[in-house]
Design a protein that fits this description.
- The chain is mostly helical.
- The chain has 2 domains: 73 residues; 44 residues.
- It contains 5 helices and no strands.
- Helix 1 crosses helix 4.
Length: 131
């Protein structure tokens, strides 16, 4: 496997940007990144002074490269992945809201409620004795 440390910072940024734009299952994403790193390394061997602009002009922008690859992934796989991702995102948000609610409730009953004063109003009446 090709390590990221072999690439310059702009090239690593290009690879990271393309990888982020892939909304597909992990196995497709890892195959894509392996192939992309091999292609970029081959290009850099042929063009040693190539920078970010040259890579972008040869391979396209990260968005174009990701879109091109996603067109080859079966739509059922992408739909299943996005549905699964959406479910787990919503589930995670629900758990966070529940934990926040429990935390606020515990804080209220442990720190705020005990400090409330219990005031008992006593009604006093003065009776005046007449002589």
């Amino acid at each position: 496997m090709i390590m990221n440390s072999n690439f310059s910072k702009p090239v690593r940024r290009y690879i990271r940007a393309a990888k982020r734009l892939l909304a597909c299952p992990h196995n497709y994403r890892s195959n894509f990144t392996t192939d992309m790193k091999k292609d970029i390394q081959q290009y850099l061997l042929e063009n040693t002074s190539a920078g970010y602009e040259e890579i972008t002009s040869y391979f396209g922008t990260p968005a174009e490269l990701a879109r091109l690859y996603l067109d080859s992934v079966p739509p059922e796989e992408i739909n299943a992945y996005t549905a699964r991702k959406k479910f787990f995102t919503r589930f995670g948000c629900g758990v966070l809201v529940l934990l926040f609610t429990i935390s606020v409730t515990c804080f209220y009953f442990n720190h705020i409620k005990p400090r409330e004063l219990n005031v008992i109003y006593i009604e006093e009446s003065l009776e005046v004795e007449e002589k």
